[in-house]
């Protein structure tokens, strides 16, 4: 993936930031990790709403990590840690993460070849933090792309979150001046219960 993709605020990030804003009263004191953060809009909003945020992007994309740091500086959040975490790879940074409550990911389900690596990382984090949830927004790019089988494989479940339920169904939020159709969806992923749900 071209690291340039991490230099833009994509529509999915705006929608996820809107969800965080709609739930801002529940964020103070929560421990939040944003994966694939890039410009870090959702993570910055979480931090500004009182969450203990950590931003991360691939350790192989130094420009994206620098973008995370720049976003923190511009938003007067110099204390927010920025980590290099590569999906699907166990690293000392991943293994030593403090407990977390919420994982954020906007438009991380971009390239199907990365889907399993993403969900492997999410499964690892949720196993360490069984009460945690993964809040993610994604752009519908192909009817052939689905994470359903991978969710089942990794014993994860998802709940669809309608955009209208948090005021993100407005044209100015979920659209973009970039070319193409921009249908944004949101889901919350968590560990499936032992009863098979």
Describe the structure.
The protein has 197 residues and is an alpha/beta fold. The chain has a single domain (11-191), classed as Rossmann fold (3-Layer(aba) Sandwich). It is built from seven helices and seven strands. It has helices at residues 11-22, 41-48, 62-74, 92-95, 115-128, 148-153, 171-174, and strands at residues 31-34, 52-57, 82-84, 102-106, 133-139, 156-160, 184-191. It has a seven-stranded mixed beta sheet with strand order 3-2-1-4-5-7-6. It starts with 10 loop residues before the first helix and ends in a 6-residue tail after the last strand. The mean pLDDT is 87. Keywords: Chromatin regulator, Cytoplasm, Developmental protein, Methyltransferase, Nucleus, S-adenosyl-L-methionine, Transferase. One of its GO terms (cellular component) is cytoplasm. GO terms for molecular function: protein-arginine omega-N asymmetric methyltransferase activity.
- Lateral strand order in the biggest sheet: 3-2-1-4-5-7-6
Proportion of residues in β-strands: 15-25%
Into which percent range does the helicity of residues fall? 25-40%
Under the CATH scheme, the architecture is 3-Layer(aba) Sandwich
Could you say how many structural domains there are in total? Answer: 1
Which class do the helix and strand fractions yield?
alpha/beta
Largest sheet: 7 strands, mixed
What is the N-to-C order of secondary-structure elements (H for helix, E for strand)? HEHEHEHEHEHEHE
Report the uncertain regions: none
CATH topology: Rossmann fold
State the fourth-level CATH superfamily.
Answer: Vaccinia Virus protein VP39
CATH class: Alpha Beta
What is the alpha-carbon Rg in Å?
A: 16 Å
Q: Mean pLDDT score, rounded?
A: 87
